[in-house]
Design brief:
alpha/beta, five-stranded mixed beta sheet, 11 helices, about 40% helix, globular
């Protein structure tokens, strides 16, 4: 499980790699790389030569030139490196192996009890990661782990995960990294999913609302994931909207998460969607976002009433507060399905390789 690919993470190299990635199997010439990056042809030649040494880049044939000899075309070798994404939920573990383009080439899942203790959970994650990496050919960049927050993304330390206070202060990044011998990055499930969506082409400012065993939000603003100064942004489910409401596992009363999950538990999907819409309207009002995306197992099991219910609340807000003809912020189901969080977790490793600082 080598990690030598980390050595190529310079700004100019990332620019070249990203253009090679987006060019796909047809490839791109060195001259085109120079034109698009603003680098000199000599600098591009040095970078691509370094990338060819570990097998990241190879020739993809020749292309006719407008003058002179045909140009050699280069392409990225997707299988030259891999990253693992882990979605660590309260009751399930999902692991994906992706190549350098983000394409899933291996997947495993297993039931899990997040309350079974750190040693048990770390060993379960390591076992599934080792199982899925067995199909890898190239080098392994590392492992991205996404799980419910709150947590410290910078240091990879968990805080009081809602419903599992025993995790408070556990250094998950270092513990799993020591067990596997590769770099590990830890982030909230919602941030990972939002990153995956942004890398996949979702533009503008949007909120990803994840309703599964809990409720949280991933925010993309200015093209990058917004984590906040202390990486605590997105604790969407624990905004209080009913002062004397039912108790929540976080210690407050009347949280959106408690109200929403209670409605789901009694089979009132319409009420759950209305509560989710109230929270989404708060985000729209605070951040002026362009789009609301819904995900998580509860939503994907029955998406239509959630989309309809959240959109109705946002539509009412637009009519009440907007000018004449003001359109409501659109709502739709996020792409990615059940493995969207795990794929996003893998992007925590791939992102920086291709110049995405928010990875």
């Amino acid at each position: 499980m080598g990690a030598n690919l980390l050595a190529v993470r310079s700004h100019n190299t990332a620019l070249v790699l990203d253009l090679l990635r987006t060019a796909g199997p047809d490839g791109i010439s060195r001259l085109e790389l120079a034109d698009r990056t603003g680098l000199t042809p000599q600098a591009v030649s040095k970078i691509t030569a370094r990338l060819r040494e570990p097998g990241l880049v190879t020739e993809a044939g020749r292309r006719a030139s407008t003058g002179g000899k045909p140009r050699t075309v280069l392409r990225l070798v997707p299988e030259a490196g891999h990253a693992v994404g882990v979605h660590l939920d309260r009751d399930e573990l999902r692991v994906v192996l992706v190549d350098l383009t983000g394409t899933v080439v291996g997947e495993r899942s297993a039931p899990l009890d997040l309350g079974a203790g750190a040693a048990v959970v770390v060993e379960a994650v390591a076992r599934e990661v080792e199982g899925v990496v067995g199909v890898a050919v190239g080098q392994l960049l590392g492992v991205g782990v996404a799980l419910p927050g709150p947590l410290d993304h910078i240091h990879g330390v968990l805080h009081r995960v809602t419903g599992f206070p025993e995790w408070d202060g556990f250094p998950l990044r270092d513990a799993l990294g020591a067990r596997l011998g590769v770099p590990v990055v830890v982030d909230k499930d919602t941030n990972a999913a939002a990153l995956g969506l942004a890398v996949g082409g979702e533009g503008g400012a949007f909120a990803y609302l994840h309703l599964g065993t809990g409720l949280g939000a991933g925010l993309v603003i200015g093209g990058g994931v917004h984590r906040g100064a202390r990486t605590g942004a997105g604790e969407f489910g624990h905004q209080v909207i009913q002062l004397d409401g039912p108790p929540c596992d976080c210690g407050n009363r009347g949280c959106i998460e408690a109200l929403c999950l209670a409605a789901v538990g009694r089979g009132d999907v319409g009420e759950a969607a209305r509560v989710l819409g109230a929270g989404a309207a708060n985000l729209v009002g605070l951040l002026d976002i362009d789009l609301v995306l819904l995900g998580g197992r509860t939503v994907t099991a029955d998406p239509e009433p959630f989309v309809r219910g959240v959109a109705a609340v946002l539509g009412e807000r637009a009519r009440r507060e907007g000018g004449a003809g003001e359109a409501a912020v659109p709502v739709r189901v996020a792409s990615g399905g059940a493995r969207g969080v795990a794929e996003g977790a893998a992007q925590l490793l791939l992102g920086p390789l291709f110049g995405r600082a928010d990875g």
